[in-house]
Amino acid sequence: MKRKFLKLAFIGLCLANLNTFAQVNSTLELDLETALRIAHDNNPTIKIAELEIQRVDYSRKEAIGNLLPNLNAGGQYTDNVMKQVMFLSESFAALMGGQKYMEVGYKNSFVGSISSQLPLVNFSLWQTIKNKQNDIDMVIEKSRASKIEMTKQVKDAYYTVLLTKSSLKVLQQSHTNALETLKNIENSYKQGVVSEYDYIRAQVNVNNLNPALINAKNGVELSMMNLIMILSLPAEQIIEIKEDLENFNDNINIISEIGKRSMIETNSDLKILDYNIIGLKNQLKLINTQHLPMLSATGSYIYQTQAEDFKFKDYTWIGSASVGLQLSVPIFSGMTKVNQAKQVELSIKSLEIQREYAKDGINLQVKSATNTMKAAKEQLVVNKDAIKQAERGYDIAKVRYQVGSGTILELNDSELSLTQSKLNYQQSLFNFLSAQANLEKVMGSEK
């Protein structure tokens, strides 16, 4: 029975490890939307920001709790080693046989108390509660900024993968064409139709493509590893990209000037600066409330007894209670509050100046990204026509060489032009998408 149990345990452990291995090494199909969802779910920065939101919310609830009455209970035992005394007047002392003082109380004293306080008028407390809402808004905006930054990183990494894969595809097609040309020329050379020079040039053309092909494969692998790292996936995870750069060709749009002016106010950096300014203004209000009086309701109940021994059942317990109002009026604090207010006012002016500079910088980023998108869009049109012309030129050069009216140099040059035009088209599309992602980040888009 023991052997059977050990065998079953071993088999179960092996199956569990195999299941884990299969999960890690199973292929994960990705498109841009899935990649963004995974990044937002796995990113530790976003998780920390969400925890910070909860922390600030508890801080607001703590401030609200100060509006409720507080209740405190206490107990005290005192051993009056030397009892307190009460001095007597001369006339009363004469009646007491010349005794000028008398001891008061008993050796053992027991006191139990319950006290409560409720703020009725407390401007500082009310302002503190109002200020907490701005703190929550600030943390939420910082969390949104983390998502925006993560979205930008994912898009950059994802588009880089698409570019490297497209470039590899173009180079592989070029390599295939070169091999086909080499094979045809080799057959013609063996038949004595073409010269040895053409055969050598065809071999050199194939060999010249090999380093670019190797670099392109390495680029795809590195870009995949970078995307896996950004998505916080296991390093062994196998991913398969379901999209190509051409899938985003139909989504090319240029944001209008009106759209830019209206959307720039959603920029996360500007909004954080706005919340900082609001926070300082709230802090200034809080400082000013400290010049105002505070009124609280108080209440207490005391239950006490005294005795010379510890016979608790014979004790006489006396209770007393009181209620009242407590008023605190600040009169003079050495100008500390006034100087604090001056410091905050200067900080507000400093932040307002920073915001103006930041706004100018963001406008410049928007302009730069928009210009890049416009230039890339124009290049896309030109490069698309260039591909058609290069394909036509390659076909013509190929036919010319086959009929003997063209040279190997013409054929190689047309093949190189076709490859370069395709690579230029992919690069232009990548430049547009990269600039668009940067513009979306500036605009404060989380998608």
Overall description:
- Helix 2 crosses helix 5 (about 125-190), helix 5 packs antiparallel against helix 6 (about 195-230) and helix 5 (about 125-190) runs antiparallel to helix 8.
- This protein has a single domain, classed as Outer membrane efflux proteins (OEP).
- The protein is about 65% helix and about 15% strand.
- It is built from 10 helices and 8 strands.
- With about 450 residues, it is an alpha+beta fold.
- Strands 2-5-7-8 form a 4-stranded antiparallel beta sheet, with no helix packed on it. Strands 1-6 form a two-stranded parallel sheet. Strands 3-4 form a two-stranded antiparallel ribbon.
- The chain starts with a helix and ends with a helix.
**Distance between the first and last residues' Cα:** 59 Å
Give the averaged pLDDT, no decimals: 85
| CATH classification class | Mainly Alpha
**Lateral strand order in the biggest sheet:** 2-5-7-8
Low-confidence stretches: 13-24
Order of helices and strands: HEHHEEHEEHHEHHEEHH
Shape: elongated
CATH superfamily: Outer membrane efflux proteins (OEP)
Structurally, how many domains make up the residues?
1
Percent of residues in β-strands: 5-15%
Helix content: 55-70%
Per CATH, the architecture is: Up-down Bundle
Number of helices: 10
Write down the Rg: 41 Å
How many DSSP E strands?
Answer: 8
Q: Could you say what the CATH topology is called?
A: Outer membrane efflux proteins (OEP)
Described by strand count, sense and barrel closure, the largest sheet is:
4 strands, antiparallel
Q: From the helix content, strand content and strand pairing, which structural class follows?
A: alpha+beta
